[in-house]
Design a protein that fits this description.
- Strands 2, 4, 5, 6, 9, 10 and 11 form a seven-stranded mixed β-sheet that branches.
- This protein has strands spanning about 5, 10, 20-25, 35-40, 45-50, 60, 70-75, 80-85, 90-100, 105, 110-115.
- β9 (about 90-100) and β10 form a beta hairpin.
- The N and C termini lie far apart (about 40 Å).
- The model has no long low-confidence stretch (mean pLDDT about 95).
- It contains no helices and eleven strands.
- The radius of gyration is 13 Å and the shape is globular.
- It has about 120 residues and is mostly beta strands.
Length: about 120
């Protein structure tokens, strides 16, 4: 079955960096467009970044554009999110997402806290 597992979260000071990873199994990763979402306390889950199946096309939320980079390693079935210049408002649980013809798959999430 489809499995997604996020890792790499933690606590970092404003201006710092973190790299999130999502290891996957149970589907053909190199034929899957993928995404990262986040959910801050008392807020709805929001799209952070998406990447095409080949990894050549990406899209970002305006709030993270220029600071975050999504990437896809089709040889390792792994999705990554490099987060630089982190801000307190980036604090959230980050989720890896796979959408297969409208069926959504999610990992359990990894918590990112940006605080001094």
């Amino acid at each position: 079955q489809v499995q997604l597992e996020e890792s790499g979260g933690g606590t970092v000071q404003p201006g710092g960096s973190l790299r999130l990873a999502c290891t996957t199994s149970g589907f053909t990763f190199n034929r899957a467009a993928m995404g990262w979402y986040r959910q801050a306390p008392e807020k709805e889950r929001e799209l952070v970044a998406r990447i095409s199946m080949s990894g050549t096309t990406t899209a970002y939320a305006d709030s993270v554009k220029g600071r975050f980079t999504i990437s896809k390693d089709n040889a390792k079935n792994t999705l990554a999110l490099q987060m630089d210049s982190l801000k307190p408002e980036d604090t959230a649980v980050y989720y890896c997402n796979y959408n297969y013809y409208g069926m959504e798959y999610w990992g359990k999430g990894t918590l990112v806290t940006v605080s001094s």
